[in-house]
Structures are given as structure tokens and as C-alpha cells.
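Human: We require from you a protein record containing the residue sequence and its fold in C-alpha cell form, and nothing else.

Assistant:
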Amino acid sequence: MRVGLISDTHGLLRPQVFDLFEGVDHIIHAGDVGSLDILTELEAIAPVTAVYGNTDGWDLRDRLPDVAEVTLEGARVVVLHGDRFGSPVPTDLATEYPTADLLVYGHTHQGRIEKVGALLTVNPGSAGPRRFKLGPSVALAEIENGRVEARLVPL
């Protein structure tokens, strides 16, 4: 199963995302979506699991949870924005969600993939407007029989 991982769109869905996510089976958005239109556009590609982020308004907070959990191809996936951790660090996330196989988070706008024990943590970076002198990015994950691999993709 191919999964597109995205975060911090802040209302901007770059055209490259449609090419990169073509053929994915599921999309995970780790918050700071920016508008409901972003989710609608992503849902046209594949089913979406999303959470709200600290900059999202009530329209998104009413529709999305703070933390989402979904099982994909036998892998337990946890999604959160991460702002409640300040600047989220994979070891802190692993302590909070020790039974997850994949944890997808955002908030820092910095793409990062790190394995903590059996948990793979992925921050796909920011796919929205350029901020903090960081280039935009997303991530792609492959899940098979509960095993997860992921890679960052610059936009």
C-alpha cells in the first residue's frame, strides 16, 4: 500500500502534490491544513485521514480530530500535528504512542524520518508556503504486512 504523507499546507496545495500522490491508496495530513478545500482536493486522489493543527480555524477543528488513528495494511498509524509537544521530537512521540508502527506529525515544517525502536516517525515537512527558509516537501510511505518504509520528497 502506498501512502502520501503531507502537512502544513496552510491553504496551499502545490500542483506537484497531485503528480507525486497519483496512485496512492491513502493520504495522511498532519495538520495546519488551512482550508476545507485542501481536504476536498486531496480526497479526489485517495481517502484522507487528517487532523487539525494550531493555525486551523473552527471549520476544520469541528470536522477533524486532534489525534487520529487508522490501521493500514496491518500497521497502526497515529497522526497528530505535534504542537502540544512544543517542538516535537521523535523520542517524545514514541514515549506517548509506544504501540504505534507509524507516527506522522508536522508543526516544525522540517522534514524528518526517524526510527525509534519499532516506531517509524515521519514529519513530511511543509507542503505549503515557504517558511523558515525551509524548502517544501511531502513524504511517501510503503506499508506491507505491518512493515513501514518512508522517504521524503522535496517539492
Q: What stands out?
A: The chain has four helices and ten strands.
